[in-house]
Amino acid sequence: MKKHKFAIKRIITIMLICCMIFALCGCKSGNDAGNGTDSQTGAVSGQTDNGASGQTDTDNGSDAASTDESKPQRDPRLANAEPHTDAPDPRLSGAGSDNGQTTPAPAVDRPVTVSAPLPKIEGSSLYVEKVENLPDNFIFGMDSSAVLAEEASGVKYYNFAGEEEDVFKILADNGVNYIRVRVWNNPFDANGNGYGGGNCDINTAVEIGKRATKYGLRLLVDFHYSDFWADPGKQMVPLEWAGMEIEAKSEALYKYTLDCLNKLKDAGVDVGMVQVGNETNGSMCGEKTWMNIQYLMQAGSRATREVFPDALVAVHFANPEKVSNYRDYAKKLDYYAVDYDVFGSSYYPYWHGTLDNLSSLLSEIAETYNKKVMVLETSYAYTPLDTDFYGNTISDGGAVTKTYPYIVQGQASSIRSIVDTLVNDTTNAIGICYWEGTWISVGTDSYEANAEKWEKYGSGWATKYAAGYDPKDAGKYYGGCAVDNQAFFDPEGKPLESLKIFNLMRYGNEITPRADALEDVTLYVDLAGKIELPETVNAILTDDSKSAIPVKWNVTEEDYNKMYTGGPAKYDVTGEADGMTAHCYVNMIEFNFIEDYSFETGKPGKWVITDIGGADELYIENKPTDSLTGDYHMHFWSSKTSSVKFTMEQTVEGLAAGKYKFGMSIMGGDCGETDIYLYVKINGEIVAKQPMTITSYGNWDTEMIRSFDYDGTSELAVGIYVEAAGAGNGAWGKIDDALLNSVVD
Question: Does 122 participate in catalysis according to the annotation?
Fold first, then answer.
């Protein structure tokens, strides 16, 4: 009967969507069709641009409405935050009178409870500024999912007195008040071999939960609803649920969650929060539409309310730097009336944007939907070095944002800065959870010795046995731990001083600052330019202040010659300053002398656009899907015959004498007969030209004037001339990536 009910719902949903599309098409004015503006019907008709019909802009299966960002926008604090109404939103999948929306349950403000803070730990060498206004019930969580596999592999943990001790007591004694543990449905193959990553099934969670509860630590249960890792890149359905329709899968998820939570309850585990899905960015448990995702989240939440009615229910997403995505997730949760308490985000400083953005975005969601917010995952490296013979995600020289040095103090400072932002700048922020701070090397002898333990006990991120479930990732790259250099214990299991940060943030520990790291230097040098290494580098003090000190670089003439003749490449030049190793990363590049080469300022700036033919549209557009690089590009469109005729050029100043090349890219359609070319002007006269062509949407034509001479004093301008007669719905196109580089003989 239940299956028929879901089927009837789906039929009604489809009929209503069809009616809605028909109504929208009938109401659409003739001027809105094919005129170069974005369709605003989002999931109903796709996002279309000037003859590029059918080019739909989606996000991991998301059925969000599109917005035309080239037009004036609403106040960003209010964007996508319309109040919930009983009327279905036609931009969302399954819109209609019976489309999966549920009547919201009465709001319950469940309190956040943790064990009482301990007195200040004295005598630490960490410099810690007190976090003002820090509540006693602020959550300091630690994901320790791999602990049992670590211990089975021979890992021992020690307290600051050098004594072997239960790792959960060590964490509790240093200010941690919550333990997070991931739960996979069945991380084992048919022969009982574990997939790795701690082999974290519910039995693992129960054992970890009992030990955590013993020391006053509450448990955060992180259901991945997968047999192995679930993250933005993959949300695989458990094998046992494969092929199920959404109604059957929702029921299976409900019963599974209920069973797991009852096992924890029967074991006396103090469960304080339950996470229904892990980094569910537009997909979950094999489902890729919000109509189905919300059914799964509702099922997990319902089970949680039945077993642990006072526990917080959390949802979890990643990539807060993608602001519009987060707004869309929160809006869909509200639209479908998903029952949850905490909107959780991953925040890894290397990749996830600024703390100001995180605070603004989470505050907006908290205020708009009256939810608590939390950072459910973060971490930071205490060393750039690998400790287990298996490569790490973070090391020196990577293309990531390095907010603090990769040292013990830097690790502590990173955590403090996030906590301070949450406490003092973010609405309804309740806590932070550090990811796998206890996952360390299982040995320091050899890769072979460690690999044997990873395979036997599942203490690496994945074993070869995971290939049967996840052949494309785990099956190819299985091995050790990739975050051992971000733990709070060294390879021998001894605690790092940074572990005390969870205690010291409450009280402060503003000791005399001292220099304990050097700031990396990064240089970008044109292939035809001169390498000039700095005479000083910044010493970074423990209070995060900086002081310039002399440096001596270890570089020879042979090293310089290699950098000059090696083409585009990156070099690590080391030196010594105040007894510490300095790094200067020299990037030999084809320097681009064009200002705002890909229009990312969103304004013409130094670009001069001259409209000769009177085109309907000629402006810099914000539309990432139509850009070659970044979010912006130059856009043109006109419905009138022979009205696309313009130049766009930039005068370049301060250029040294020499040989140069100039290039640009263009794509578009419906242009008919064209005359398009790049040009170089010296003192107002064109001295070089290169023809270009337009074919169709997405097919970029990149051309270049290969070489021209410049004397260093004359007036120099580079640009593009575009003339198109037009055909069909009118000539249109996009221009991006203007490049002016030196030519190296």
Answer: no
Residue 412 CB neighbours (<10 A): 29
Please report the pLDDT score of residue 15 as a whole number. Answer: 54
Range of lowest pLDDT (51-60, 642-651, 677-686, 733-742): 51-60
Cα 346 to Cα 183: distance, rounded to the nearest angstrom: 17
Q: Is 377 a catalytic residue?
A: yes
In this predicted structure, the answer to whether residue 686 has a pLDDT above a threshold of 90 is yes
Residues contacting 626, CB < 8 A, separation 6+: 49, 52, 633, 635, 734
Residue 580's beta-bridge partner residues? 577
Please tell me which residue in 150, 151, 247, 279 is annotated as part of the active site.
279
């004036």: which residue's tokens? 72
Beta strands 178-183; 271-276: pairing state = unpaired
Mean pLDDT of the chain: 88
Sheet of 521-526, strands arranged across? 521-526, 580-589, 569-577, 552-553
CA distances from 140 to 209, 223, 447, 506, 568 (A): 16, 20, 34, 11, 45
Which of the following is catalytic: 287, 377, 617, 723?
377
Tokens of 149: 């596999």
Strand residue runs (E) in 411-509: 429-434
Each residue of 420-441: pLDDT tens digit? 999 999 999 999 999 999 999 9
Distance between CA 174 and CA 420 in Å, rounded?
Answer: 18
pTM: 0.74
336-385 confidence digits (pLDDT tens): 999 999 999 999 999 999 999 999 999 999 999 999 999 999 999 999 99
* 3-class secondary structure per residue, 234-300: ECCCCHHHCCCCHHHHHHHHHHHHHHHHHHHHHCCCCEEEEEECCCCCCCECCECCHHHHHHHHHHH
CA distances from 706 to 116, 238, 647, 650, 719 (A): 70, 55, 21, 18, 14
Which residues on adjacent β-strands are paired with residue 521? 584
Q: Are 42 and 65 in contact (CB under 8 A)?
A: yes
Whether the CB-CB separation of 110 and 312 falls below 8 Å is answered with yes
Residue whose structure tokens are 């819109």: 95
Token pair for residue 647? 């130049």
Quickly list DSSP for 136-155. Answer: TT-EEEEE-TTHHHHHHTT-
d(CA 337, CA 295): 10
- Read off the pLDDT of residues 242-272 as tens digits, 9 standing for 90 and up: 999 999 999 999 999 999 999 999 999 999 9
